[in-house]
Protein 1
Amino acid sequence: MSASDVSPTAPGSDVLDSPMQGVWPPTPAMLASPVDPDLSRAQAKRLRKAWETPRGWRHVTAVNNTHVGKWYAMTALAFMLGAGVLALLMRIQLAVPENGFLDSDRFNQFFTMHGSAMMFLFAVPMFEAISILLLPALLGTRDMPFPRLSAYGYWCFLIGGIFVLGSVLFDAAPSSGWFMYPPLATESEGIGADIWLLGLSFIEVASIAAAVELIVGVIKCRPPGMRINLMPLYAWYVLVVGGMILFAFPPLIAGDFLFELQRSLDWPFFDPDRGGDPLLWQHLFWIFGHPEVYIIFLPSIAIAAMVVPTAARVPIAGYSWIVLSAVGTGFLSFGLWVHHMFTTGLPALSLGFFSAASEAVVIPTGVQIFAFLATLMVGRARMILPMLWIAGAVAIFTAGGLTGVMVALAPFDWQVHDTYFIVAHLHYTLFGGMVFPVIGGVYYFFPVIKKKKLSERLGRWSFWLCFTGFNICFLPMHLTGLLGMPRRVYTYQADLGWNALNLVSTVGAFVLALGILVFVWDLVRPKRHEPHTPRNPWGAGTLEWTHDVPDEPWGVRSVPYITSRYPLWDQPELLARMDAGRFYLPDAPEGLRETMITSAVDAVPLHVARLSGPGWSPLVAALFTGGAFILPTFKIYTPAVICGLLAIAAILFWLWTATARIPEKPFKDGGLGLRLPTYVSGPKAPGWWAVFITMLGDATGFASLVFGMFFYWTARPDFPPPDSPHADPVLSGIAALLFGAAWAATRLARGLNAAGLIGAARGSLLAGPLLALAGCGALIAAILHLAPQTHVYPAMVWALVIWTVSHVLCGAIMQGYCLARSLAGRMTAQYDADLWNTTLFWHFLLATCLIGTAMVALIPRAM
Amino acid sequence: MAQRHRSLWHMIIAPVIWALHFLAVYCFSAIVCAKAAPFGWAQGGVLAMTAVALALIFWQAVLAWRQWDFLDDGDHVHERPTATSRREFLGHAGLLLAIVSFIAVTFVTLPVLFVGDCR
Amino acid sequence: MPNPVPQRYHGLSGMAWLSTLFLAGCKGQQSVLAPAGRDAEVLAGLFWVLLAGAVVLWLAVNGLMLYIAHLNPRPQSRRMAEGLIIGGGIVLPTLLLTALLIYSLREMPRQREAGSGLTVRITGESWWWRVEYLREGTPIASANEVRLPTGSRSELVLEASEYIHSFWIPAFGGKTDMIPGRTTRMSLEPTKSGEYRGQCTEFCGESHARMALIGVAMEPQDFAEWLTAQAGPADDPLTPQAMRGRDIFLREGCGGCHTIRGTPAQGAVGPDLTHFGGRRSLAAATLPMERQALIDWLRDPAAIKPGVRMPAYDHVPEADLADLATYLEGLE
C-alpha cells in the first residue's frame, strides 16, 4: 500500500503529511485479533534485552528516563534538605533578638544559599526530574526523545549543585543574596560570587537542555491517536513550562555573562562611574526571576490536575479552561518582572503597567483553582492521601495568592516590599504552589516509580506536621513584616515588637522540618519485604497506570492507540492489548531501542525513532563541561579552556556515534499493519525541532544583550559617549558579508547534497567554515581599537562581538562536522538530518550576525 | 481557515498580541519619559496601540468562536478522538485566551488614564 | 560565637526578654499599622480593606473545598461546574481587580507629588545615612536622623555611595531605593509629631541589619527653630573634660573622616558630628544615645556593626575615651 491508499479519518486530519504506509487508524477488528502468546513472549524477551539497564559500575552509563529521572529527583531532594537545614539555622539565629549563634557574614551566606539552592537546585530541577520520570509514562511512550541529553543534563546538575552548595562548608559561599545585585555582588571579595555565577550558569544550561527535551517529548512522542485535545493536562503544563524556560533562562545567562565579564575583566557594565548601571542586572535577573516563579508553580499544579480527577473519579471539568490557564499564565508571567522593582524609583507609569499585568495574572490562576473545585463538585470526592496534600496546597496557595493581589498594588508594595510580609507571601505561594503538590504527587505516583506504596499513616502524620508547622512558621511573618522587620537581617533589636513573632516562627519551622523528615523517611525506608502495589491502586484513568508490576525496563510493552483523555476508564481492552503486544512496536528484532514519533497535533504515526542507549559520553561530556565552568572560578584559565575543548570533543563523539545513524532499512514494520520510516530529516525529525527550540532560547539570550544596549541608551544621558570611537564600519560591513556568504554556503550545500551533487556539497561545506572564520576576524578587527575597560559602551560592543563570534565558531564546527560525516559516508543524499539541523542553526545564526553587526557598527551612530 | 483548524500557533495569537502590546507600551513610554518628551505622546501612543491590539484580539476571538462552532452542537468538552473535536477544542481554547488577553490589554492600558506624568 | 552587641544594650537577658515578648508588640515604632503620615495612613487603611476581602475570599474558596470533600454533596452538573469557573475565575476577579487597580493607580501619583517646601538629600552610605537639608548655599549636614515638619509634603532626594540601600520610615510612608549612579526621589507628609524608627530594607552587605535611622516629625514652628540651630557651628566645649575630649578627637585624627563645623575637623567620609549630641541614637539607630554605649562604640565599632568602616580606638586609654564621649555628647 502507498500513502495515497490511506483514507483520512476526517477532513482536516494531517494524515496525508505522514510518510507512513499501511492502515491508519487501526480498525476494531485488527485491535481485537489476539496475539499468539509464544510470539508475545519472544517479543518481550527481545524487547527486554534491548532496554536492559547496565549493571554494576556501568550503571552510571544508564540513560533510561526511569533511572535518570530517579537520580535527578533524589539529588534535587538532597539539595532541598541541605537548603532546608540552612533555613533552620537561620531560624535559630532569629529566634531571639541580638542572638550570637551566627555572625553576619555566615548568616548572609546562608540566606543567599538557601534561596539559590531552593530555586536552582531544588524547585526547577525537581520539575525536570519529575517530568523526565513521568512524561514518557503519561504518554505511553518508551523514553524521552533524547535519553543521552537527559543524562548529560543530570550529570551537569549534580556536578554544579555539589560545587555551589558545597561552598557553604568551606565558608566560601556567595553572600550577596540569591538576586546578586551589583554593586554589592560585583564588588564582593572572595570567590563566592563567581561560584554563584559560573556554577548556576552551568546548571541553567542543563535546565534548558531538559526544557528542549520535554517540549519535543510532548509534541512528537505522544502515542498514536492522542490528539492535542486528548493530551493529559500534565503534558500541557510541561509544554508551557518548557516554553517559559526557553524565554526566561537566557536573559539570566546573558546577565551572568556580563556580570562575570565585569568580575574577571573589569568591564564596567554595572559600574555607574564608567557609564554602567546596576539596574540593568535587576531587569535581566527579574525577567528571569518572575517567570521562574511560575515555572516552579505550573508543573506542580499540573500534578494536582492529575490527582484531582482521580480523587473525584470523573474527568477534569473545564479542560479547555485549564489549558487557557496554563497558556495564559505562561504569557502573562513575562509581564510581571518589574513588580520586584517597584521601589527602584522607576516612573509611576511604568510601575502601573507591571502592576496591571500582575493583577491580570490572577485571572488564569484563579480559573485553575476553580476548575479543581468544579471537578470535585462534578464527581464524588474521596480524600485519598495525595488529595489531602493537594487540598492543603490549595488552602496555602490561595492565601499566598491573595497576599499577591495586595503586593501587586504598587503603593501597597512600597510599604511591605523587602519585609517579612514578602517572606511570608513567597513561602505561601511556593509551599502551596510547589512543595505540597509535589509531595502529594510523590504519594500519588510512587507506585509507578517503585511498584510499592508509601505509608498512609506516615503520609498523614507528615501532612499534618507540615501543614501546621508551615502555618505556625509563616502566618505570623505577615505581621512581623507589617511591624517593620526587613528581610535579610541577621539580627534585630529587642524593643521593636518582633520577639514573640520570631520565636513562634522558629518553633513552626522545626515542626515543619519534622514533617518533611517523616516524609523523607517514608520515601527512603527499606520496602523490600512489602508486597507489590496493584497496578492501578487509585483507580486512575491515565496511561502511567499501565505500568508493569514488577518493573520492566521498556516503558510500555507496546505503544497504545489512544482514543480518550482517560484511556483506562474509556478503553476497557487497553491494558490487556498493551500487555499482549497488540499495539505498536511490540518487538525489537534489531535489538535497538525504538519509540514512536507522531505528528504534533493529531498524533498520526510518522516514524520509528532509534534512541541512543547507555554510554559514557554524557558523563564524560558533563565532567569536562563542569571543568570549563568551575575552574575559572579559581582563576585557572588554561585547564579550563582545555576542559572546554575536551567537552566539545566528547559531545562531537557522542553525536557522531549515537545520532542520525543510517538505518539498515528505510522502512520497518511498526505493528498493526503499519510500515514506518526509520530515518527522517528536517522538520519531521525530533532533532530538527530540538535545534529549533534551542535556538529560540539562544535568540532570547542575544535579544537580552541587544536590550542592554538600548537600556543604557534610555537610562544614561551619555550613552554612547559623544567623543567615543565607534567600530570600523567598513570592516564590520565586510564581516556581515562574509557571514552571509557562510550562511549561503550552508544552505547551498543542503540543496546540492539533496540533489546528489555530493562533491559540490562538500566543496560548499569546506568554504563555509573558512568564510565564517574570515568574518570573525573582520568583526574583531573592526573593534580592536575600542577599550572595554574604559566605559560601558565599548564593553557592550565587545560583549556583543564575543557572543556573535562564539556562535559563529560553533556554526563553523557544525559545518565541518557535516563535511566529515559526508566524507565518512555517515551522511548521504537521502540521509541528511545533520545538514538540515546545521542549516537551521545557520538561519538563526545569520540573524544573530546581521543584528549583531548592526548593533556594533550602525545603531550606536544613530543613538 | 483549514490551516487554522489544526494549528497550535493560531491558538496563541491573542496572548502573543498581548505580549507585543505590553512590550511596545512599556518601551515606548520608557523612552518618552527618559528623553523628556511631552507626556501626551505617551498617552496618545499607548491608547493608539491599545486600540490596534484590542481590534486584533477581537478579530482573533471572532475567528476562534467560528472555529469552536459552539452553537451547532453545544460541545464544550471536546473529548472525542475526532478531527472535529480537536478543531473545536483549539477554537474554544483560542477564544478563552482571546478573552483573557482582551482583559489583560485593557488592564495594561489603565495606567495611562490614571497616572498623569513621568514621576 | 561572641554576641556582637554587649548584653546591656538590649538591656535584656534570660527571662527578661520573655517578659517583653508580648508587651513590646504594641509599641509599633516601626510599624506599617501605626501610621503617622498621610501616605502611611492611606496604605494602612487600604491594608485593612484588602485583609477583610482576602479573608472572605479565602474562607469562600476553602470552605467550598471542605464542604465538597467532607460532606460529599450530590454531584453537580458539568454546566454548573463551568458556571463556577466562569463566575469565580473570570467575572469576579475581573471586577474586583479593576476596582483595586484603578484605586491604586490613582493613589500612586499622589504619593509621589512634588514637595511643597523642604528638600532633604539623603545618601545611603555603608552603613549609615548622610542627611543634608538643602537650602541656598551649603546644605545643612546631619546623619542617621531625618526631621520633617508635619502638615506639609517634604521632598527627599535619594542617592547612594557604594551599594544599593532602601530608605523606609514605615510610619510616614513607603520606601524608595537608593542606587549608586542614580538619583531617586520620594516625598513624605508626616501628620503626627513624634519619633519613628526606619530601617534600610535593601540588602546591603554585612551590616544591613544595623542600618536604621530615626524619623522625627515636628510641628512646623519647632522644626524651623531646630533647623536654624542645626545650621550653626558646634558648641564650644565648656568643661575641662570636654575640652580634653576635643583635643583627643583632633589628636586621634577623627577629623580625617568627620566634620565638626567650627573646628579643624572637616572630614567628609563619615557622618557629620556638628550636633551629634542632640541626636536620638548612635551608630545608625543601633545603640541608644548613652554615654557607656558611646564609649563602647568608640573602642570597638566592629563588635557592634560588622564590617564598619570606622577603625577601633581600643589603643586609646579608657579615661581618654570617657573624655571624648563627654565632648561628643556635649555637641547638641
Note: Chain A touches chain B through 47 residues (CB under 8 Å).
Protein 2
Amino acid sequence: MDQTNKPNEITNVVRMQGIVKRFPGVLANNQVDFELRRGEVHALLGENGAGKSTLMNVLAGLYRPDGGTVIVNDKVVNFSSPRDAINAGIGMVHQHFMLVPSQSVTENVLLGLDEPRFRMHLPRYNRKIAEIAGQYGLHVDPAAKIWQLSVGEQQRVEILKMLYRGADVLIMDEPTAVLAPSEIEELFKTLRSMTAQGKSIVFISHKLHEVMEISDRVTVLQKGVVTSACLPISSVTRADLARLMVGREVVFRVEKKHVEPGEVVLSVKDLQADNDKGLPALRGVSLDVREGEVVGLAGVAGNGQSELAETLVGLRPVLGGKVIVNQKDVTNKPVKFGIRQGVSLIPADRTQVGTAPNLSVTDNVIMKKYDQAPIGQGWMVNALEANKYAAELKEAYDIMVPTVDTSVRLLSGGNLQKVILAREISSEPKLMIAVQPTRGLDVGAIEGVQRLLLAQRADGAAILLISEELEELLSLSDRVYVIYEGGIMGEVADGDIEKIGQMMTGTRLEQIEMQGEA
Amino acid sequence: MTQADSTKPIMGFKLPFKMKVEPRVVDPPRWYSPMLSVIAVVVALMIGALVIWLGGGEPWKVYAHIARSSFGSVGVLSDTMVKAIPLMLVGLACSFAFRMRLWNIGAEGQFFLGAFGASMIVLLPVLPEEAPKWQFIIVMALSGMLFGALWGFVPGFLKAKFNVNEIISTLMMNYIAVEWNNFFIYAVWTEGGFQMSRMFQRNAWLPRLSDFAEAIPVFRGLTTHMGLLFAIVAAIILWLVLSKSQWGYEIRLIGDNPRAAEYAGISISKNVILVMLVSGALAGLAGMSEIAGVVHRLQGAISPGYGYTGIIIAWLAKLNPLAVILVSILFGALILAGREVQPSGVPTLIQGVIMVSLIAIDFFLRNRIRITRRVEE
Amino acid sequence: MDFVLVILASGVATGTVLLYATVGEIFSERSGVLNLGVEGMMLVGAMTAYKVTAATSDPWLGLLAAMLAAGAVSQVHAFIAITLQADQVVSGLALNFLATGLSLVLGEGLTSLRDVVPTLPSFTISLLSQIPWLGRILFTKQSVMVYVGYIFIPLAWYYINRTRPGMHLRSVGEYPAAADSLGISVFSLRYFYVFVGGMMAGLAGATISLSISPGWFAALTTAGQGWIAVGLVIFAQWNPARAAVGAYTFGALRRLVLDIQGPTTLLGFANPFFYNPYYGFFLKMLPYAFTVVVLVIGSREANRKRIGTPAALGLPYIRGQRGL
C-alpha cells in the first residue's frame, strides 16, 4: 500500500461485487454490491434478516460466498477463514462478543496470533496493549479478566483485538445494541478518532438515528438485496432511510388505546437476590404493576433484569424482600404456585429456556397446561385434546408449521416466539413478564408481538416489559422504571428519554431533579 | 450452520460432484430412524466380521453358528429368552433413566443388589422355608426391587442435592455392589467354604415353562421362566408412563430441556430421585428374576455385564420400552452364543461396534447430504 | 512407621497411573470434549504395552506402542463427538465398550505370559533419597514412570496456564466461537487434545502393565481406575496440580486397602484387619466410596464458585450457531 495517500484523496479499501450467499431455504445475499472508502464510516442499514451480517461475515472470512468477488486494496481476495481476512487488514467486532470470559484482556487480544512464540510473557504484552489502547482512547485494564468487565469495556477489548492485528477496516455489528447512551457517545468518539487516523469502519445497524449521527455514507439492504447503495448521509432524511429499509412507510408509534389502570397486580418490595456467581444482583428492588398497564423496565444488559424476571416467577431464590401477586405472597413459592396465580413469563432466551427443541409444537404449547383439565385427565395427558388445542393455537396465532407434530427446533425465530406467546397468552395471565420479547425478530413479527402485548393490556392484564430497546419501551409502556446495578434509579411516566438515559448510567432520579432545579 | 462442503480438491484432484452436509429443515419420516438402526447393526456386523477375519477366523461360520445356537430350535430359542430376560429389565431401567438424560450406568450394581435383596428373603430367612411359592415370588420381587431402588437412590439423591455427576457415582456404586455381594457369599452365606450360598428350596424358584410340561408336553425341558412376564408387563407399564402420562411428559421435557422444565414449574430434583428409584427397581427386579429364575442361589458370577449391555440395548431401542423387548432378544442370542465364540472378548467388541455405528449414524437423523453436480468454474 | 512409609511409597506409585489418566482427561476436557472412554483406552494401552513388550522384549517400545494405540482409539470418539456432533456421553460410553472389547480380543492368551516379559526400570535417586521421610516415599526404588510423573505435573500446569498453545487450548474449551473467529481451528485442536488424552490414558495403562503391577489380567488390569480418573478431573477442577493431589491420595488409599491386612500390629495395637476375610471386602469398597465422597466435595465447590468447568465442555461446535 502506498502510505502517502493524502486524506482528501478518495480510495476504495474494499469493494464487493455481486455477492451471493445461500443458506438452506434462504437466499441471504442476492447480487449484493458494496464499497468502502478509506477514512469513512459506512453504515449498512437493514432490518433483522436483511442480510447485513451475512454480507459482512463474508467480508470477514467467516462465510464463503456462493458467488461474487471481494476486492481489498485493488486485489481480488478469496478468504477461507477469518484469519485470512485479518491478514488482509479486515477485522470484525461481532454483536455477541467473541471473548473468552475466564481469560485476561491481554490473553484475549493475543489469541490466535503467532506471538508470543511459546511462553506468554504477560507483563510485557500488558504494557504493549495498554499503549495501543491509549492511542485510540480505549480505556481498559489489560490484566483484568473479561468477566470482570462491563459490556462497554468488553467492546473496547474487541476493538483493541482488531487494532492489535493491524486492522485497517473495522466491521462493527450492531455495536450500540448493548450500550447505555453515554457509552454510545464514547464509542462514537473512538470511532471518529479511528477514522481520523485513516481507518475505515462499517457500521451495521437498524437504528436510524445512530446511522444519521455517525456515518458518512449509507447502504441499505432489504431481504438480501441492496435497495440503495452508498448514499451520502447528508442527502437523505430519516424517513427516506426508513422507507428504503422496510419498503413501505413505517409508523414509528404503535397505536395504543387508553386503558384506566386498575388494582395493583404485582407488588415488589425491597427485593434482594444473587446472580449465578453468588454475587448480589438485586439490591432492594421495589415496583408496582397495575391491571391494564404496561410498565417498562429500562436498563443496560446485565444490571439485574434477568435475575429480577427469574425471581418474580420463582426460578431464583429470594434473599430478602417480598413479591406479592394479587394480594398473595408468592415469595420463594414454587414456580407452579405462581403459574396458578396467573403469572406468566416470556423468557429472553427462546431456545434455552422458552422451548424444548426436540419436542413437538403440541408438547411445547401444553407446557403449563399438561396437568390441568381438559388436557390433563387423571394421570394421563389426553393426546387428542392436546393436539386439538395446539391446532387451535396454530390457527389463532398464525404459527407457520406443516403440522403440530413438527419439532420446534425446525421453526424460525419469529415462529418460535409465536409458539411461546400463544402458550403464555392463552393461559390468560393476570401478570405477564415479557423479557426482550421482540429481540432478533423482523419488523413484521415485531409489530405482531407488540400488538399482542397491547391486546393483553386492553384485556386488563398487568404487563412488566423488560427490554434494552428504549424505543420499544417508550412506545409501549405507560410508565418506565430504570434499573442500574440491581437498584431502581427512578420512575418516569412522561417518556423523558434524557432522564432515562441518565438513570441508565447510575444517576438517581432525585439527583437529576435536584440538578435541574439548581 | 454446517458448511462442510467438499469444494476443496481432495488429494490433488477434484470430485465430479459437490457433496454438502446440511442440517435438516423438516422432520425425517417415521420409518427413517428404525431404518438407520438396522443399517447400523448391519454395518457393525460387517465390521465385526472384518475383525474376526483379521483374527484368522471365518466370520460367516461364526455368525451362522451364533444364529444356529440361539434360534435353531425351540430349545435354544428358550435359552435365548432366558438370557434375554435380565437384558430386557436392565434395558428398560436404562431407557427410563436415559429418557430424562439421566445417565444411570449403575444398572449392573442395582442388578447385584436386587439379587442380594431377593436372596435375603430365602437365606436370612425372612419367610419360613415352607412358605407357599406365591408368597416367595411376591416378597422376593419386592425385596429385589427395593434394594435395587435403594442403590439407585444414592446417586439420585447426590445428583439432586449436590449435583454430583451420576455417571461416575452410579459406576462407583457398581464396584461397591460387587464387593457387597462378595462379602455375603464368602463370609455369611457361604456353603461349605465355596463362594456361593446354598441352593434355594424349590418353592423359592420362579415357575418355568417346563413346570407345565405335564399339561403341555411341548414345554418339556424349556427353561424360560416367569421373569419374561415381569419384563413384558414392565415394558407395557413404562410405555404407558412415558408416552401417555403426565409424569412421562415431565420426564421427556426435562430430558429435552431441563431449563424449560424448570420454567414450566416441574421439579427436577424430585424427578431425578424418582426416576433413579424406578430405574434401580427395574434393574433390581432383573437381579431377582435371574436369581429366582435361573441361578437359584446367590453367587459371584451372576452377570456377564448385563447392566452394561442394557445401556446399548436402550440406545438401539431408541429408548422405546416396547422395542427394548425385541432388541434384548437379539442381544440374548449374542450373549448365549458368545460364550462359545473365541476369543472371548468378541461379543463385547461387537456390542461396542454396534453402539459406535449407532451413534455415528444418528448424524443422518439431524443432517442430510445433498449431492449436486459440480458446475465448471 | 516403616509400614506407613511403605504404603505411602507404593501409594505414590499406584497414584502415578491415576495421575496420567486424569491429566490426560483434563487436556481433553479443557478443549471441550468429555471423553468417558478412559477406562477402555487404559485397557488398550495396558494390553498393547504388554503384548508389544512380550514380542520385542523392549518395554520402551511397548510404552510407545501403548500411547499410539490408545491415541488411535480415542480418535473414534473424536470423530463421533467433534465431526458428527453426537452426544459426548453416549459416544464415550460406546468407546469404552469398543476399546474394552478390542483389548480383550487382542489380549487373548497374554494372561499366562507373566514373568517372561521385561518391565520398565525402577531405581533410587541417591541424593534425593537422603531427604528424611520424603526421600523414602518419593525417591527410593520407584519406577521410572513415577519420576516422569513428578516432572510431568508442573509441565502440564505450565503448558495449560502460561503458554500460547495452552491459551489456545483453554479458549477452545471455553468459547470455541471466539477462537474460531480468530482463525484458531477448533476442530483440529479438539482432535489433537482428544488424541493427547488418549495417549495419556495409554501411558497410564502401560504404567500398570509394565511397571506398577506387571501383567495382563483382562478387565481386572485397570479395575475401574479409568472411571476414578474421570471423577478426579471434577475434583481437580481441571487443574493438573490438584489432579496430582487427588491421584496420589487415591493411590495411597488403594495401597492401604491392600496392605493393611498384612501387619499383625498397627500403631502398637493388634491389627483388626489382619488377614480378616470379612473386612477385606469392605476395605475394597473404600476407593470407590471415597470417589463418590470426593465427587460430592468437588461438585459442591464447583457449584459454589461456579468456575472451573470449561464452559463449552460436552457441547459440539457448529460454526454459525450463536453463543457456543
Note: The radius of gyration of chain B is 23 Å.
